[in-house]
Amino acid sequence: MNRDQTIRDAAYAIWEAEGRPHGRDAEHWRLAEERVAASPGEIAAATTPVQRKPRATASRTRTATTAGRKTVSKPKV
Fold it and tell me: Taking the CA atoms of the chain, what radius of gyration do you get in angstroms?
C-alpha cells in the first residue's frame, strides 16, 4: 500500500470514529499524516480511530415545560 492510500485510509477511520462530521476533512487528513509519519510501516496504528468528545452543536438544546407550554432555551456554547 502506498503512503497516500495509507493516509486516506487513516483519515477515513478518523472521520468515522468522530461520527462522520461534515467539513473537517482537512483536520482528519492532517491527523492521519501525523500518525503515518510517527509510525512508518505500521498501517494498523495509523488507521486506529481517535476517541474525541463530540462538539456542541446548535441542535443540542435544552427544553423546559412551563404552565403547559414548551419553551426552548439557547444551546450551551
Answer: 19
